[in-house]
Amino acid sequence: MNSQLKVAVIFGGVSTEHEVSIVSATSVVRNIDRSRFEPILVAIDKKGRWFLGPGAFRLLGGDEAGDVQRVVLSADPERRGFLHLDSGKVTEVDVVFPVLHGPRGEDGTIQGLLELAQIPYVGCDPLASAIAMDKDVTKRILSQRNLPVVKGTCVSKWLWFIDRDEVLEEISDTLSFPLFIKPATMGSSIGITKVHGSEDLVHSIEIALSFSSKVVIEQAVENPLELEVAVLGNYEPQASLPGQVIPCNEFYDFDAKYVDSSSELIIPALISRRLSDDIQFMAVDAFVAIGGSGMARVDFLVSGETAYVNEINTIPGFTSISMYPKLWEATGITYPDLITKLIELGLSRHQDLQSLKQTIDLEKGLGV
Ligand SMILES: Nc1ncnc2c1ncn2[C@@H]1O[C@H](COP(=O)(O)OP(=O)(O)O)[C@@H](O)[C@H]1O
Ligand SMILES: [Mg+2]
């Protein structure tokens, strides 16, 4: 009897992180424990079309792959799973591992589709994913929990168009250069600029607003120590040892992340025990604050005595040499075991959700 669980690994996607997602997914498929899991490949191309089958990687690589089928994810209770558009056949899976970074992958959209289909999946639920994708909302939630975040403001496209002068005045009254200007809902440093004086401010805000309908404007932390902590778990999330990023550019911009390979990752970070304990604690607190489950990487900017939570990534880079898996390796969980653990966490969260009441019996009342 085949007792392996079928795990759909979804990768590619329409986001700018399409290529990174392919590398992450390749590592997952190579390292998944085949004695327990059978990976089913599902590629999303840049147009947003879904393809299932062994040729899915080759297809995204640009090859003509004959052994793939166009599919859609069906939430119909009688046809639940990947519905083949040509044959009408359904490929059922036990669990999905979305290995998609950025908008329409990491932002709660795919997670919402999977909730609707009632298929278990790895990682955060729609709400936590959506919160973490939005740097403005994340900062508000973290502040409410008294976690330190960098001083800044957020401006919507609408406000910018109706009252630009007011916005600029507020920025000059409350913040001082250099500033970081970021699209609120992006990743991979896309659309982010460091602005040294007022002459570049308008242009930078417009760049950021071309990627997102809100822009986050914040004080630059000068020469920050960039630390990252991996969090894993559902009800009792654990923090890994922290790692450090040393960007090869003025900040950790797109080039420093993906083009120039001279940025350094130091794992574990060479920092004091006290700082390490503090940010591990804060990472778990931040994860809990957004209602995280499964996994997230919590990133910090540290200046002197203060560690600010910069952002939370709910589907962090997941290649075998990425920070998230490397941090767990340094903390004692191998890459294949990490994949297994994440799948188990996804299945267990799904079971918990299933046990919730969906309706009430009007005659019996709440029956609690
Ligand atoms: N307020 C800040 N002060 C100093 N550096 C910053 C600040 N905000 C962002 N950065 C730099 O920009 C990089 C990308 O910003 P981040 O907020 O992490 O966006 P992304 O989601 O695109 O990774 C950070 O890794 C850091 O190098
Ligand atoms: Mg970042």
Describe this structure in words.
With 368 residues, this protein is an alpha+beta fold. The protein has three domains: 5-121, 3-Layer(aba) Sandwich (Rossmann fold), CATH 3.40.50.20; 151-219, ATP-grasp fold, A domain (Dna Ligase, domain 1, 2-Layer Sandwich); 225-354, ATP-grasp fold, B domain (D-amino Acid Aminotransferase, Chain A, domain 1). Helices cover 34% and strands 24% of the residues. The chain is built from twelve helices and 17 strands. The protein has a seven-stranded mixed beta sheet with strand order 6-5-4-3-2-1-7. Strands 12, 13, 14, 15, 16 and 17 form a six-stranded antiparallel beta sheet that branches. The protein has a four-stranded antiparallel beta sheet with strand order 8-11-9-10. The longest helix has 20 residues, at 335-354. The chain is globular. The two termini are 41 Å apart. The model has no long low-confidence stretch (mean pLDDT 93). Bound molecules: adenosine-5'-diphosphate and magnesium ion. Magnesium ion binds next to loops. The site of magnesium ion (MG) has 2 residues, from loops.
Low-confidence stretches: none
Helix and strand succession?
EHEEHEEEEHHHEHHEEHEEEEHEHEEHH
Can you identify the CATH class of the largest domain? Alpha Beta
Please report which band the strand proportion falls in: under 5%, 5-15%, 15-25%, 25-35%, 35-45% or over 45%: 15-25%
| Estimated helix fraction | 25-40%
The first-to-last residue Cα distance is 41 Å
The number of distinct helices, counting runs of at least 4 residues, comes to 12
Write out the strand line-up for the largest beta sheet, numbering strands in chain order: 6-5-4-3-2-1-7
- Ligand list: adenosine-5'-diphosphate, magnesium ion
Named at the architecture level, the CATH assignment of the largest domain is 2-Layer Sandwich
Integer-rounded radius of gyration: 21 Å
Number of strands: 17
Please name the fourth-level CATH homologous superfamily of the largest domain.
ATP-grasp fold, B domain
- Sketch the major β-sheet: 7 strands, mixed
Structural class: alpha+beta
Quote the average pLDDT: 93
